[in-house]
Amino acid sequence: MQRSLLVCVCAAVVCAARAGRHDAYSSTAVFGVQLRNSSDLELLHNLELKLNLDMWQYGMPRVRDAMVIVPPRVRGEFLSALDEAGVGHYVHVQDVAQALEEYDEDLASWRSSRTPRKIFDDYHRYADIDAYLEEVAAKYPDLVTIVNAGKSFEGRDIKYLKISTTKFEDHSKPIYFMEAMIHAREWVTTPVALYSVHRLVEDLRSEDRDLLEDVDWIILPLVNPDGYEYSHTHDRLWRKTRSTDPTVDTTCIGVDGNRNFDVRHGVGTPTDPCQNTYAGARPFSEPETGYVRDILAEHRGRVQIFMDIHSHGNYVLFAYGDGSLPPDALQIFLVGSAMGAAMDAMKLPEAGFYRVGNSATVLYGSSGSAQDYGQVAGAAASYTLELPGYGHLFEVPPQYQPHINEETWQGIAVTARLSRALYRDRYNAANAQP
Ligand SMILES: *[C@@H]1O[C@H](CO)[C@@H](O)[C@H](O)[C@H]1NC(C)=O
C-alpha cells in the first residue's frame, strides 16, 4: 500500500518535471481558420500583427485553412474578431505544450530504436553537425573543402562545404547553392542538406555521377545555429536569430532572418522587435544572413540554383515577394514544376501535393526574403522550398525524416540537371574567356 503510493508520487513528480519543458505553451491552442476570400485573409493578417500571433500555417481562401497559435492572453479577442466577421474556426491543437511533450516522447522512442543515429535521420545538435562537416572534409580532401563563413551573433562558427571534382576552378561549371535552417524551429530542413552531402560524397550512386562531375555544390546546412540551439534548449517554436540590439530594443531578442535580406527590406513587416517576423533595423543586421549574401556575391555569375530550404507546407516558390516576376519566370517555373513533380511522384499518401509558383501569388506577400535576394544577386533560379509537414506542421514525427530526405534529394537532382540544360548557353557566354 505504502509502496504503491510512493510509486504514484514519483510518477507525478516525473510528469510535472517533464511537463515544465514546454510550460510557456500550456493553455495555448492552435486554431484552424476557414478563410473564404481575400477580406478574411486581410482580417487574419491584421490580427496577426495586432495580437502578435504566430502562424503555424498560412491559409489560402477555399484551399487550405490557416493555422494560428493563440495564447490564452488574446484568445477571447481573437475569437470574437473572427466571430464578428463570420469567419469559421475550430481547435486544431488543444494544448501546444502537450503536443510538444508528445513530440519529445516520439523522438525519444525513435532514437532508442535507431543506433547509430545517422546525422541526417535525426535532429542533432550544432556540435554534432559541425563535427560531421569537419569529418567529411577531412575524409574526402580531394572533393570537399570546408569553409568557416564567420561567427554567429552568439559566437558559433557557421561553416559550409564546397563539393567539387575540380576544386571550384573550372568556371564553366555552374554552382548549386543550398542552405537550410534560417528559421530555427524548422528542424527537418538541416537533415535534408546533410543528406545531400551524404549522397554527393559518401554514397554517390552511378546514376548521380553527372551531378557531381558537372556541377559544383555549396551546402550550408545551418544558417542560424543560435536560434537552432535555443529551439532545443528553451523554446521548440523559436523562429528568429538570437541577436540583441540595445539601440532598438532591450527586451525582445532576434530577427526573422528570412525578412532580413536587402530586397524591399521592411516593407509590410512589423516595426515591433518583439514580433516573429521583425525584419531587423537594417538589411543584413544579422551576421548569419550576411554570410549568405557573401557567398552569393563571391560566386556571382555562376550560381545556377539557389535553394533556401524551409518547412512546412509542400511548396516550391520563386521571386518576387511583391508578386512581380523575374524576366526568366517561365524557365524558373519550369524547373520548379519538374522538382515538384519529382517529389510528388514519391510522396506518401498522407502528404499534400507540391504547389509551385510565385511566392506572393501562391502563398503570401513578403519582403527581405532569401529567395528574392538570391534572384537579384544573380542566381539563374532562386527558390524557397517548403518541405512536407504531414499535418504535424513543425513537429513532423522523426519517422518521416528518411523519406523527406530521399524524396527531396530526387527533387534537387532534377533541378540540377534541368537547369544545367536550360542555362548552359547563358553560363558559357558569361564565362567565356576573351
Ligand atoms: C468575403 O466574404 C464576406 C462574407 O461573405 C463578404 O462580406 C465580403 O464582402 C467578401 N469579400 C470579398 C473581397 O469578396
Short characterization:
It contains 13 helices and 12 strands. By secondary structure, it is α/β, with parallel strands linked by helices. The protein has 2 domains: 20-101, Alpha-Beta Plaits (2-Layer Sandwich), CATH 3.30.70.340; 126-430, Zn peptidases (Aminopeptidase), CATH 3.40.630.10.
Tags for this model:
Alpha-Beta Plaits, Aminopeptidase, disordered N terminus, alpha/beta, metalloprotease, binds 2-acetamido-2-deoxy-beta-D-glucopyranose, signal, 13 helices, 8-stranded mixed sheet, 434 residues, single chain
- Largest sheet strand order: 5-6-8-7-9-12-10-11
Q: Which radius of gyration do the C-alpha atoms yield?
A: 22 Å
Proportion of residues in helical segments:
40-55%
Shape: globular
Order of SSEs, N→C?
HEHEEHEHHEEEHHEHHEEHEHHEH
CATH topology of the largest domain, anyone?
A: Aminopeptidase
The major pleated sheet works out as:
8 strands, mixed
> What name goes with the CATH superfamily of the largest domain?
Zn peptidases
Number of helices: 13
Q: Give the amount of beta strand, in percent.
A: 15-25%
GO cellular component, one term: extracellular space
Domain Peptidase M14: 122-419
GO molecular function: metallocarboxypeptidase activity; zinc ion binding
Protein name: Carboxypeptidase B
